[in-house]
Amino acid sequence: MGSTATSPPYPGRLERLRRVLSLRGLAGLILTRPEYGLYLTGVRGGPILVGESRVVRLDGIETEWSNVVSDAAPHRWHAAVGTAGLVGRPVGAELRYLTVEIERAMDACGSLTDVEEDLDRARLAKDADELAVIRARVRTLENAFLFVMRTARAGMSGLDVALAATAAISREAERMILFRGNLGAGRDCVDPDSRPTSRPLASGEAFFLDLYPDFGGYAADLTRCLTIGAPPRAVVDLHRTLEDALAAGLGTVRAGVRAADVDAAVRGVLRDARLLEYFPHHTGHGLGLFAREGPALVPGDETVLVPNAVLAIEPGVYVPGQGSFRLEVNVVVTEHGCVVLGQLPPRLLACES
């Protein structure tokens, strides 16, 4: 079982998770999402049991960390619970991600407590390795937007645009990455969760494209509004208000500020522009191991931002008769402000043809 290494590859990350145990009075964690394997050991997979002194990997993947038992098949999970020192003891889990099979296998433990929000808070500050991966993801998505700007033209459908973006992302990742995102086009489109359709895009038409593909661990989440050729004046003016709202949010972000304060700054600009009623969703969310994690940038979220937290900030308006518009950037929180990740300006993008 395991190998001869004596220290975990990411000790700081393990310590953050074990801090959840002490704060919640738990003896261990069961982590079922495969991204946690990447987070703790550098190898995606799982489930993983985190005890007070032992970590037990249940997927049979060999690692070079002696505290990981790497040959515990599902039929031996009860023994693995004993190895992790969790028999009859309280364990934390992300309850909505537990399968019936895993929940039954964990009956050797004591009670199960939902700790999804606790885990989000534990991962809020990112380390240097995590930030490097997220920056690379942002670059990949920006390159996809640049490809769409070069290739989108009148007569192409929203599906064509989504496929072009997906192809660009997959080529850069050197593997197939499935489309996850939104595309809203047309003056009658007022749905923030719009999906690409087969309807052809017209010259001068504006649309928003939101990309948040599943890379299998660590994410970026970017949105831009684009036009087929030169944009109409009304679109330019409306988008400028979104840019102002985004700037207000970015100007509020810094360590020590509440998530709700960032939301309030964005909503204030939209309120002054008489567009707040057309803004039906959050101002943003945390970003990191997953495409959406805490905090939520919404009224009432008291989460205090910390240095090296990563946020996606995404004001949007969905106006009947004008269409759907959203603008999103990813930032790293610092002591005195934030750093916007990537090079693509948060402006209205005109496709070349």
Question: How much helix, percentage-wise, in residues?
Answer: 25-40%
- Superfamily (CATH H level) name of the largest domain: Creatinase/methionine aminopeptidase superfamily
Largest sheet: 6 strands, mixed
Proportion of residues in β-strands: 15-25%
| Spatial strand sequence of the major β-sheet | 4-3-2-1-5-6
Number of strands: 17
Number of helices: 9
Assign the CATH architecture of the largest domain: Alpha-Beta Complex
In whole angstroms, the N-to-C terminal distance is 60 Å
Number of domains: 2
Return Rg in Å: 22 Å
Descriptive labels:
alpha+beta, 353 residues, 6-stranded mixed beta sheet, Creatine Amidinohydrolase, Chain A, domain 1, Creatine Amidinohydrolase, 5-stranded antiparallel beta sheet
In words, what does this structure look like?
With 353 residues, the protein is α+β, with helices and mostly antiparallel strands. The chain folds into 2 domains: 11-122, 3-Layer(aba) Sandwich (Creatine Amidinohydrolase, Chain A, domain 1), CATH 3.40.350; 128-351, Creatine Amidinohydrolase (Alpha-Beta Complex). Helices cover 33% and strands 19% of the residues. The chain is built from 9 helices and 17 strands. Strands 4-3-2-1-5-6 form a 6-stranded mixed sheet, with helices on both faces. Strand 15 (329-333) and strand 16 form a beta hairpin.
What topology emerges from the helices and strands here?
Layout: H1 11-24, E1 28-31, H2 35-41, E2 48-51, E3 55-57, E4 68-69, H3 77-83, E5 91-93, H4 100-105, E6 112-114, H5 116-122, H6 128-151, H7 158-173, E7 181-185, E8 206-211, E9 222-228, H8 233-252, H9 259-272, E10 284-286, E11 293-297, E12 310-313, E13 316-319, E14 323-326, E15 329-333, E16 338-340, E17 349-351
Helix pairs in contact: 6-7, 8-9
